[in-house]
Amino acid sequence: MAHRECSIHQKGLKTILFLLFVAFLLIYVMTLVGNLGMMALIFTDCRLHSPMYFFLSVLSFIDICYSSVVTPKLLVNLLASDKSISFEGCVVQMAFFVMHATTESFLLASMAYDRFMAICQPLHYSSLMTKGSCMQLVAASYAFGGINSTVQTGNVFALPFCGPNQVPHYFCDIKPLLHLVCANTATAEMVLYIISSLVTILPATVVLTSYSLVWVAIGRMRSAAGRKKALSTCASHFLAIAIFYGTVIFTYVQPHGSSSDSNGQVVSVFYTIIIPMLNPFIYSLRNKEVKDALQRKLQVNNSLC
């Protein structure tokens, strides 16, 4: 009887894992299709060749990158009996994930600054938000991402791991790895808290300041059409920003022990897998220019057929 109950339990577990595999695979495919489609649409439609859509194309690229750091390995682990990852693979996974997540944080701040300049300083917008300055903002975002990745990865993997090294998470994240360290982690946790706070709060401050000024400027607009256009653009930005920073702050900026591991995993699934899929839909469904560009592409394709 016990053997039969164990067999039923294993079959039930395999079914659940398979369903999770199908769900995450569909989400990952939608992430790739949505973000690659957004990039292709922006690059091929000359009406979208503006700083705002340049930043949006970079955001799509980053979403593809940091989702791809985590999701393929998760999909393999859901079906494979061997769910191990090498020490070197764990280092690489964590380093690239932290780099792209930090880069996205600063890129969202750059996008908020771009909206501030477009709405609050329209006369100086074209002279200040040039192609060169946009490239510099993206390069600076990646530089901050690289610095944070180097510091955080060194902070974790310089500590001793005595085993058994079973990561209580679905990818090599900072907090779960610190649980495996067989030494005092107070300093490492303090470094994590301080650096995570800086790379989250600094860009979030830029975002909140920029959008506070933007909302004031929109409220002063006399044209209802202009106000509606500005709101439609900024609303999609602000929604994506609120989702991203909310989940990151919940995961990394809380003091140690303030949230359970299970809650942390649920939130991590949201910002590593769900958000990269949602971003292209948030920007396309709420943005008239993107919808018009997509409609033009579909009309051209239909005429060619």
From TrEMBL:
Q: Which Pfam families match?
A: 7tm_4
SUPFAM superfamilies in UniProt:
Family A G protein-coupled receptor-like
Can you supply one Gene Ontology CC term for this chain's record?
A: plasma membrane
Going by the UniProt record, its keywords in alphabetical order are:
Cell membrane, G-protein coupled receptor, Membrane, Olfaction, Receptor, Sensory transduction, Transducer, Transmembrane, Transmembrane helix
Q: Where are the transmembrane segments?
A: 12-33, 53-79, 91-113, 190-218, 230-253, 265-285
Highest taxon in the source lineage: Eukaryota
Q: How does it sit in the membrane?
A: Multi-pass membrane protein
Tell me the GO molecular function terms: G protein-coupled receptor activity; olfactory receptor activity
The protein's location, in the record's own words, is: Cell membrane
Domain (G-protein coupled receptors family 1 profile) spans 34-283
Output the PANTHER family linked to this UniProt entry: OLFACTORY RECEPTOR
- Name the family the entry cites: Belongs to the G-protein coupled receptor 1 family.
Protein's UniProt name = Olfactory receptor
To which species is this protein native?
Sciurus vulgaris
